[in-house]
Amino acid sequence: MRRVYFLIPLLIHSYNYLSAQETKEYYIITLAFYNLENLFDTENDPLTFDDDRTPTGKYQWTEEKYRSKLINISTVISEIGRDLSGKPPILIGVCEIENRKVLEDLIAQKKLQTYNYGIIHLESPDRRGIDVALLYRKNVFTPTYYKNFELYLFNDQEPSIRIFTRDQLLVSGMLDGEKIHLIINHWPSRRGGEVQSRSKRIKAAQLNRRIIDSLFSSEPYAKIITMGDFNDDPTNISIKKHLKTLGKKDDVSMKELFNPMEKMHSKGIGTLAWRDGWNLFDQIILSSELLKRDFSSYRYYKAGVFNKSYLKQKEGQYNRYPFRFNTDSEEGYSDHFPVYVYLIKEKKD
Questions:
Q1: With contact defined as beta carbons under 8 Å apart, do 335 and 318 qualify?
Q2: What CATH number should be reported for the domain holding residue 127?
Q3: How far from 3 is each of 96, 175, 274, 313, 345, CA to CA, in Å?
Q4: Which of 69, 70, 96, 229 has the CA that lies 20 to 30 A from 54?
Q5: Residue 1 belongs to some domain of the structure
Q6: Number of domains in the chain
Q7: What is the H or E stretch that residue 92 is in?
């Protein structure tokens, strides 16, 4: 397989197993997640509530605006992780996309078309018609299995009425010859208030944990990454108690989950802003196998929020908030910043 990732020397001196003077070379790759904020095409789908995103709808969503959004989003994706890996992400989980067509149009953009991205997308029953999906570089990742897991929610007042929301997408495959499992999420929103909607995200967390435990039952040393817009912060009950994440890497034991975003959240770092406060809803969470100190295979190196200055509002009431796409000026990107992790593997002589 042709290696398309970037080889860099890293001086790692913070771990006990390396001396302060020891320098090693590693292959480094980027995995990312990005909420694309209503990436809809211009066609009216009679089966979903997409009327606002049509040429005659509320946002007068024309082909020109759609194409501008595609260009802007593709620019962001092309730059995530470049600081260290020198290339766009190998794997990118996305949410708030209408269908497969918008992803095909996205990866065909000039900034991405040379990287040979593939798409894994299955329709969800969400009433707005938005789904989750995975983009992957075909020459580095080979999918071997994928499945949607439905989240069953029902109206509190009328339990016979189902609330349709996004599925959770499991993708298993070979990452440069190493088996890995990814779960792409977009958990129920806080519509109606955080407390009133909390039970929905708890149920989403319970479903996510069942998927993970099922993987562990057949593969105890599984490399698992669950990523997404969880609509909760790393310290909320859905993440901490029901998904059962830990915020300190050294505390993580076999079959447990590490959330590198918890420390960022404690420092006030966020991926979206609301009413003068920051939330870190977008997270990438890793299983214990990715934390081992044996770098003969891919292991976790570090995580971050991709919040470059051009992704921020420059003035006014929303100064420094994510620069969301303006349908009048055709400028901006999304109301969320992307998140990413680096995985590294030691280069052998």
A1: no
A2: 3.60.10.10
A3: 31, 12, 42, 37, 13
A4: 229
A5: no
A6: 1
A7: strand 91-97
